[in-house]
Structure prediction request, 162 residues.
Amino acid sequence: MKVASSRTRKAAKRQTGSYALVLRLPSRRKISVGKLGVVSFPRGYYIYFGSALGGLRARTARHLRSDKKLHWHADYLSAEVPWSQVWEMADGQRWECEWAKEASGFTESTRGITHPAPGFGSSDCKCPTHLIRVNNPQEVRALLRSLSPAPRRIRLGTITAA
Prediction:
């Protein structure tokens, strides 16, 4: 029987890749989002696209914590309402920009899906935004399942920092 070394176990725990976070904002809110300033967020479901090439589970676990320093744009939004879903693609690739572009195409063909915060989450790239707003949970699922490659939904209870 082959026994995994501690180095192999560490590498297995430290998956890298991309993720999508989802939250439901029950009412319109004006939120101060770092250097973006005050942003008006209509009620709805929000999907944020990010990547974590230094450790996917550690990054998503950090986003889910309530006791964190506000660093990324996503932190300011989740300080108002916690993220309720995590979708991941643990393949070591950065899909956040591609997914944001695909989601933008989806938003143009679907009424009511918007980009409420230009520049959100995209200060390190040339994308218009990495945050979109949709109307309902069915649109969240349909949009995330339509992405290529499609991330898979992760149960929140299984996410812990490695």
